[in-house]
TrEMBL record:
It comes from the Bacteria. Pfam families: GmrSD_N. This is GmrSD restriction endonucleases N-terminal domain-containing protein. Residues 13-216 form the GmrSD restriction endonucleases N-terminal domain.
Amino acid sequence: MSEIVEKSDVVSLGDLFTGEGTYVVPIYQRAYAWGRDEIDTLLSDISNARKQGSPAYYLGSLVLHEDNRDGKTVCTVIDGQQRLTTLYLLFSYLKNRNSEDQPSVAMDSWNMTLEFDCRDQYTRALQQLRRRNADTPAQKGDAVAQSLYDGYDRIHQYFEQNIGDDSAEYCNYLKNNVKLVRDFLPAKTDLNHYFEIMNTRGQQLEAHEIVKARLMSQLNKKSDREAFSQIWDACADMDHYVQANVATDMRERWFGGDWCSPEKLTSQDLFGTASATDGEDSGEEYHELKSIEDILGEISEHNESETTDIRKVSEVEDHPSRYRPIIDFPNFLLQILSVYMHRKHGDVADGASGGQNEVSLDDQRLLNNFDTYLINDANEDCVREFAAELLLGRFLFDNYIIKSSADDGQNDYDWILKKYKKTVDSKRNASYVLVNSFGADDGDVETAETSSQRNPSTQNNIVMLQSMFQVTESGRTYKNALQEMLQWLFKQVRDEHAIVIGDEAFQRDLQEYAQKRLRSVLGLDESSGPEESVQRIRETVNRGVKTNHFIFNYLDYALWNMLAGPENVASSEICEKVRVEFDELKERIRKEGVERGKPLDVSAFRFRYRDSVEHFYPQNPVVGEGSATKTRMSHHPKTKTLLAICA
């Protein structure tokens, strides 16, 4: 079970079908089985990629075994035959659809052949479909190969219903922009056994697993590949703190004696300390991709292969469902790629500005992004550097970015910001505790209950700011605020050589970013005068359901920040700008609370996900302010505060 992919390449469909190649589906593979749903999904995905202007669209991989038969090179299809057969039917249809007014639809040349080993009916059916006239539906052939005729008919129907006159553009995009990864197994691979393993597991490689394999192919030494895999796997498990995902000895070596003070997370350190048992390496050159079989094995056996000491720590106290990260691993990879490119080149955008050299923070473009910015020009140093940034990024993300508590119901959760720290009991057994990332003493294991009783602190303020951004950017993609935070945290560690992140500096950066973003949403710049600013603000907040949610979220933060009390450092800064406005509003709220028997208390305020603008209107408006239906936003009390802050 240690076969290694001998070589790998990326090929466009045009090159695949015009190339001199014979592809054979072995007898031990099942017959063609794709139906309407699978075919429509494939065709729709390609169509959507074309409409979105994607320069390249990846369909996945073909696993092939190349050998020589009677002087001819033949590729046995080990995995991906359903997709390849459908593409063959698709190109047959497009070839037959060609007419005098649509010459560009036809293939310039078609040299590739597809055969089914020991199934002559299938091979004959494919030849017939490739030659036939497409003016009428496919004639019924041998019942054994009926699925091929049905697939051809479905492609014909799909084009008539969905593509129509755009077939020429569709075909050009299909030939030039749609690509496959071809992975070639070594000559001595036991193909029957290999296929049995893959078929039993029944798993398709995900995009991030393909990225992993292709990055590892750049590493020559076995020890480097093992170190890379160890780092990647530790980072891929988003349900636990990254410190819990590595063995105890590596935890201390990577993250310091207290498990939360990393000093040696550079590529030079990591690829010299990762626990790769590589006694046989001795400078061995090895330019081969890790096999898809091995990667599938890692997926299915990941949890079973964890060492006992990791389980002892993570299972007892860090159950995977206890805390929920705000992003998944594929999108986290893009966040780190963006940080890496920004730090390496300085001119790579964050996916929001539309710049020419941007890393799109959308996992639908994961392979394209990694191909463009890392893999195509990668060398060993780049791969090792990226692995180091990935591990540091996971540490910073886990310990300095909020998570949500999943213990409560959907509408009654809490935001937590804690770091993973080593503790030793009276018997000198090592375990861990989760302590506040900022503001509290290391021994203060603060809970949600005690947090709500404390005065606002830097810790609370950072939680409030981060949760404000999270409910604004609630999806997994295009999390630009998270990108800002990660870039700032990386700067502290890599440039300032900080071991501990400064709480007040982090809070200040978040506040400055929030105010900069608010002014951008409102259309304000440095040249905007007071009257112009007021007019723009009023226009922006009077857009009904199209009003940007960040405006309301920022106002909620500003209100909380001020009403929480003068001991809050940040509130004193805002007070200088809006003291009169806030003091008046605070006094009115205080009086209203006394009259209702509910004194002013903002300690329980937490940001919530809201689906519409209407949900931002207060449940208990201040007396005299009217209802949401009667009060224009430009006269709403919160808008006055907004004017005072930004004008």
